Amino acid sequence: GQSLEQPSEVTAVEGAIVQINCTYQTSGFYGLSWYQQHDGGAPTFLSYNALDGLEETGRFSSFLSRSDSYGYLLLQELQMKDSASYFCAPRGGATNKLIFGTGTLLAVQP
Amino acid sequence: DVKVTQSSRYLVKRTGEKVFLECVQDMDHENMFWYRQDPGLGLRLIYFSYDVKMKEKGDIPEGYSVSREKKERFSLILESASTNQTSMYLCASSFKTGGYNSPLHFGNGTRLTVT
Fold first, then answer.
1. Which of A7, A22, A35, A101 could form a disulfide with A88 if both were Cys (CB 3.0 to 4.6 A apart)?
2. What is the tens place of the pLDDT at every residue in B60-113?
């Protein structure tokens, strides 16, 4: 079967660093994507990890450990505009079908 | 810029009506997807299509069907709408990349209310 776990809510202050963890179980795993969704908006792509290790894109980094079926999204120098829901989405198969979970609601406070 | 356009932002239908949700993308993407998003349940895949006239069931296909007659257009059909289909419906598209990643591009969603 397939399963996905990430925290439902995280709160942090401006300028801080926050890590959103994701554990997954899926057959035919290809890689792990992260998406951001602001309230009332469409999900937008942030990052993708196919191999173990850290991928950095500006203030955001994403990590994957395939052997542990675990990944995380690291957000640095938090800004108010980072308040959004963040979804990890494992890709199971060559068809690019992604499994989204319930996401993590990040609230950044001044 | 990739554009995924959903025909309606808000839709109100009555129980038992046949409902069509339309999605058009302009990037020549092979893959198209329909998700629904509900509070506490996240995004759940209803159907996806990897080519014209091709479709596969997602996790929650019951009560829905789809149509992909042209590459750029993917329609979600509720044969007989029910109140438990009240939800936000999100369409997405991507390239068919095999082993490589192709991000999903989402439309802005259609909020459907069935009364």
1. A22
2. 999 999 999 999 999 999 999 999 999 999 999 998 877 678 899 999 999 999
How much is the CA Rg of chain A, to the nearest whole Å?
Answer: 13
Nearest CA in chain B to A31: B101
Q: What span, in angstroms and rounded, lies between the C-alpha atoms of A16 and A41?
A: 24
Query: How far away is chain A from the Cα of B82, in angstroms, using its nearest Cα?
Result: 23
B positions 40-99 inside 8 Å of A (CB): 40-45, 48, 50, 56, 58-59, 90, 92, 94-99
Q: Report the candidate in B97, B103, B44, B94 with the shortest Cα–Cα distance to residue B74.
A: B94
What's CA A53's distance to the chain center, in Å?
A: 14
A81-95: per-residue pLDDT in tens?
Answer: 999 999 999 987 767
| Residue B84 three-state SS | helix
Does the beta-carbon distance from B48 to A95 stay under 8 Å?
A: yes
Give the pLDDT confidence score for residue A94 in this predicted structure. 65
Taking the Cβ of residue B13 and every Cβ of chain A, the question of whether any pair is shorter than 8 Å is answered with no
Q: What percent of chain A has pLDDT over 90?
A: 81
